[in-house]
What does this fold into?
Amino acid sequence: MQIRLALPSDLPAVRDRLRAVFGPQRAEHRMDPVSQLIKAVISARTYDEVAWAAFIRLRAAFPNWATLTLADPAQIEPVIDPVTFAEDKARRLPILIRVIILKRGELNLDFLKDEPLDEAMEWLTRLPGVGVKAAAATLNFSTLARPVLTVDTHVQRVGGRLGLTPRGGDRTLAYDGLMEQAPADWDADRFFELHWLLKAHGQSICSHFDPACDLCALRDACPRIGVGRDQEGDVVAFRGPRTLPGEEAGI
Ligand code: SF4
It folds into this structure.
């Protein structure tokens, strides 16, 4: 689909400006892909620090991930609690591990390093409970180090406001839109950095309800500058006049 761009296909410019604010973001430690997938699954809709603590407890309780296949969800839930939807995630984790073993004959995802990227994404998103965000995180954050962008809620919101992705709820469309615009020569580290920069921006400046547009490093190019709450506290769709060359403000 045709995507209107605030910064003409300029993910490198977005990255550079946000890097000037938040500093360079590097992958200091990459986990094996199975561990990363489990981490991604239990992280859904959960604050990072809560998810990391739950992951560390889970790893301590199940040092061999394959033993999760035999675990009762009632054993897993208190270990990962208070992640969001802990009961549901506890039920799904053994199923996820069983399916991987059934499909591959072993609990190992290293083969995804050599698969075409689209096929690797498709393979992962066919697993039960694995969406496009968890699949991309597995491919990009882990030792697989594949060049793919992890689009979480912050990345999706910022991308939508900047006009880099369609606004709305479809995570896959946001992922497809951003991947289409990424330079073909970007490696895994560049996608990793863009993810964490957009996330940091979304968490601190371009927040859901009260974006601090006056402090934003991207404000001169953002068609949604001024989006936020009005004086009564209601969310307003667009508040700041902004006309991009050849475009109407507020689009
Ligand atoms: S100008 Fe405002 S809405 Fe646009 S990216 Fe910056 S903080 Fe977000």
User: Anything to note?
Assistant: The chain is about 50% helix and 0% strand. Confidence is low (pLDDT under 50) at residues 1-6, 231-251.
